[in-house]
Amino acid sequence: MDIPRLTNYQQATFPKNVTFGGAKIMVDGVVVDETGETYGAYNSGSGQPQIDYDKITHLVKACNTQNIPCCLTTEGDKAAAKAAEILAQNSKRLPSGVYNSISDLEMITKETAQHMAKGKIVAEIYPQVLGLNESYEKSYMEKVLPSKYAARFFNYHALESAGVKITSGTDLPLFMTNLPEAIIRSVWRKFPKGEKLWQTEGRCDCLTLLQSFTKNAFRANGINDCGTLMKGKKAHLAIFNEDLTTQDITRLEQAKVIATYINGQLVYQV
Q: Would you give the end-to-end CA distance of the chain in angstroms?
């Protein structure tokens, strides 16, 4: 990793509404491909990946020493636990209002969530990711690992209960950002097809999810004048034709953005 180049990015001028967010480091692979680092052994007998955590620790320290936040991407529960440990050791080097984070977090334990909260580590979840599975019957989570680990997949409630600041992404271009779909997958825990839901005890509260796209997303990046509807704040608004907290999933599935404002200026309208 080229630390001097990252330092230059901190001082660089970017296009309007674009800012430098820090360094992103991939930790493990993909659980469905059996390359994520997990506490449980894969049902197929595949071995766990070999990860140089000492090197990752060195990179995080080098970045944080220069006030550059790091985002570690993890899928397996073991990789997430190790990432939380590394970031917690170095977060104190960052200035106030700047945070390290862990993204993806496909598998989450309560212990990792508590460690993240204590270390003030932000979670960047991908709330639409359940949609990679066509239905419960065709989902991979209980096929690649023993069923006792199933509750760790997309366990957003653990993050919420621990008080972790949650933000949302989409792993673009895997998914185009779609807030109603994010609610259906992470709050309702519904697959694209079928009626059987996924581990509803791990669901995210709807208000928490909405804040992950708004208030939390800005504050996690040190921006405090956006993300809430208050006098004096910048008016970055997406207006939908439905109440996104509705209990009518049919209405939610049909919800559309009808107008978007940036700094109070209309930039999109149906």
A: 44
DSSP string, 46-67: PPPPP--HHHHHHHHHHHHHTT
| Residue (of 78, 79, 68, 80) closest to 12 by Cα position | 68
DSSP lists the bridge partners of residue 123 as: 102, 166
Per-residue pLDDT reduced to its tens digit, 14-52: 998 788 989 999 999 999 999 999 999 999 999 999 999
Radius of gyration of the chain, Cα coordinates, nearest whole angstrom = 19
CA 29 from centroid of its chain's CA atoms: 16
- Separation of alpha carbons 143 and 141, rounded Å: 5
All residues at 6 or more sequence positions from 104 whose CB lies less than 8 Å from its CB, including other chains:
73, 74, 75, 124, 125, 126, 171
User: What's the pTM value of the predicted model, to 2 decimals?
Assistant: 0.94
Other C-beta atoms within 10 Å of 225: how many? Answer: 11
The 10 Å Cβ neighbour count of residue 29 is 17
| 216 class by beta-carbon count within 10 Å (0-12 exposed, 13-18 middle, 19+ buried) | buried
Backbone φ, ψ for residue 166 (5° rounding): -105, 130
Q: Give CA 66 to chain center in angstroms.
A: 24
d(CA 80, CA 62): 20
Average pLDDT over residues 177-191: 97
Report the distance separating Cα 71 and Cα 68, nearest Å. Answer: 10
CB 212 within 8 A of CB 220: no
Which secondary-structure segment (H or E) carries 11? helix 3-11
84 contacts 45 by C-beta, under 8 angstroms: no
